[in-house]
Amino acid sequence: MQNKDIHTIISDALGIDKKELIGNLDAILQSLQKAIEKNKEALLQANKIDQKNNNGFILDFNIIHNLFALVSKENVVYGQVTLSQKDDDKKLMYGKQIMDKGNVVIIYDGNPYVLIEMILRNLLAGNTMIFSNRGYMYGTNQLLIEITQSVLEKFSIERNLVQLYVSETFDELLANYANIDLVVCIGDRTLQNTILQKSKNEILTSGYENFDLYIEDASHLDFLNQILKTGLNIQLYINKDVHLDQANALIVEDIEEAIAQMNYNGHKYSAAIFTTSFTNASQFIREVKASKVMVNTSPTVERLLDIEQDDLYNEKIIIYPLSFKFDDHKDEVKISDE
Questions:
Q1: DSSP 297
Q2: For residues 124 and 312, what is the distance between their CA atoms, to the nearest angstrom?
Q3: Which of 14, 39, 87, 230 has a 20 to 30 Å separation from 240 between CA atoms?
């Protein structure tokens, strides 16, 4: 499926000049959104091929539009310099500059929405990106990568700022830890645990689009059946007293075992409980380890990637006097309070 080996991909990622990103990021993101819309038919065709091969789901362009709208609200971008405070006693001004993390590897389950959002967020952070999955929705993902690379070249930015590498094990990729500055793993708990064990780099993890649901009583079965029909990746935990025949569900004794199972085996992204007990609902809220916790509500109601923008960049602290003289300039330079 891919032409380049991992050593070439890593080599191509290193030393990319990012100066054209500074000042152009808004234009790049707008151009990318237009390019995806312009290539909608080609993307739909690639998506149909993935589906025909039982290797993908139907792409929803409304979700893609929402991703661009979400990321456009971020107000911190690569290269930005801001003044944070002034110390009159020390006669110093403090500021910061947004710097890139460097070479970021994103290991994910092939969900193209993850690909798009991580491209957008890492562009804002100024990072070089290597995406890696096991080949799920390859046609859709590869075309999105090519569209992004084409947009980058229009702004005189090397296309290898964004690359895709397909792997079954990720061993060869992670073996290049000296040339990786951050690993982001987005997928189910099995994938997360695999990468946590294998990676020697700093890791961010997310169970995005993987949900945990505990059913404690049968009072919401009609609504629960609607949730289960969505076809999303939902791990069910069912109380032993609830007679609900669901393949692959885990049967638990009580609320304590349900919480323990979710905290150990769960995806830690979105966890929900369906119950009529206020006490158990409160215990679930307090003790379950998940980014989002729902009570008598579908765990799929809030589907946002729980990796924050500030996890993807570094800050350079800047300190300078309120007034100073350059060596080759005798006039005093004043720094205003603005």
A1: S
A2: 9
A3: 230
Per the model's pLDDT, the better-predicted residue between 335 and 190 turns out to be 190
Strand duo 270-274 + 250-252: pairing: unpaired
pLDDT digits (tens, 9 = 90+) for 295-327: 999 888 888 899 999 999 999 888 877 765 555
Q: What is the dihedral of CA 162, 167, 170, 171, to 10 degrees?
A: -120
Phi/psi for 162 (5° steps) reads -130, 125
Residue 97 is classified by DSSP as E
Return d(Cα 287, Cα 294) in angstroms, integer: 13
Q: Where does residue 108 rank: exposed (0-12), middle (13-18), buried (19+ CB within 10 A)?
A: buried
3-state class (DSSP) for residue 199: coil
Are the CB atoms for 132 and 110 separated by under 8 Å? no
Residue type, 36: I
With CA atoms as reference, report the closest residue to 31 among 130, 126, 128, 119: 119
CA separation for the pair 286, 73 (Å, rounded): 31
Taking the C-alpha atoms of residue 126 and residue 128, their distance in angstroms, rounded to an integer, is 7
Measured between alpha carbons, how far is 50 from 111 in angstroms, rounded to an integer?
12
Cα 100 to the center of its chain, rounded Å: 16
Please report, for residues 59, 112, 119, 132, 298, the alpha-carbon distance to residue 139 in angstroms, rounded to integers and kept in the order given. Answer: 12, 10, 17, 14, 31
Assigned superfamily of 6-209+305-318: Aldehyde Dehydrogenase; Chain A, domain 1 (3.40.605.10)
Kindly report, residue by residue over 49-79, the tens digit of the pLDDT: 999 999 999 999 999 999 999 999 999 999 9
* Residue boundaries of the structural domains of the chain: 6-209+305-318, 210-295
3-class DSSP state of 317: strand
* Chain mean position to CA 75: 18
Position 328 scores a pLDDT of: 59
The confidence score (pLDDT) of residue 304 equals: 82
**Does the pLDDT at position 1 exceed 60?**
no
Angle at 102 between CA 100 and CA 108, to 5 degrees: 105
